[in-house]
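Thread: ketopantoate complex, take 2
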Amino acid sequence: MKITVLGCGALGQLWLSALEQAGHDVQGWMRVPQPYCPVNVIQLNGLAYNRNLPTNDTAHLAASEILLVTLKAWQVYNALVPLLSQLDPECRIILMHNGMGSQGELPAFEQPVFQCVTTHAARRDGSTILHVAAGTTHIGPTNIAARPHSEIADTLHHALPDVAWHDDIMPAIWKKLAVNCVINPLSVIYLCRNGDLQRYMPHVEQITREVARVMEAEGYSTSADTLLRYVVDIIHLTADNYSSMYQDVAAQRHTEIDYITGYLLRRARKHGITLPENTRLFDTIKRKEQNYERLSS
Ligand code: KPL
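Output below.
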């Protein structure tokens, strides 16, 4: 299959290497075009994948059957909108990022759109991407055109298992949002790996309970205890990892807080619910971003 991966960061390189090894005709798409995209991944089995893959070929883009968008939520609009008119109307667009709300910013278009969330953990170490922890990718349709295309989960699963198809992806996205509301800001505040959050269980529980209140108000049947068990499972599974927000703050990059805790707070407000602890975390991360943006300007 012809596939373009938009965004060649840690997650983008992980998928580029997996899809290429599964026999697909892949290219990367970069904001600043370069002759090729160096893909250096240390895989879970310890083997290195080092290849220069093609990039930004407009003929490849126009013929792509899948456009996999691995950018951060806040980058999606600016990167994707200029490409939409160049895509085949049948090209399947997969959005893969933490948080929610990016799709609501996009104009209407006819291509099938899927949203997915993944618990695979990958991080950059110099010019190498380390695939730190295996996980599950959950994918489902977010418009009518995407509904008949459940086979896309098999294509992805063959390249980088596990991939699970959901006719209704929203509960899975909300569960991942809960994980990110807890792990990401807390790992920044306590300056720790995901696994170290086991030392701060009262705080983990407090945040999870607030998220559960919003999920219940949104109509998802979950209890705070079930959600807490899920969050704790992910803390264990990704124990050695530094969260993406920790890495963003350490590198003084814009974080996804507006699409994670920010999205949660916007939904809570719609239901008249106040979330004191999530509000405090949101304000703390925003202050950190403003501080380093101020320092660099
Ligand atoms: O999604 C993640 C992230 O870091 O953004 C988790 C699952 C928390 C893994 O670190």
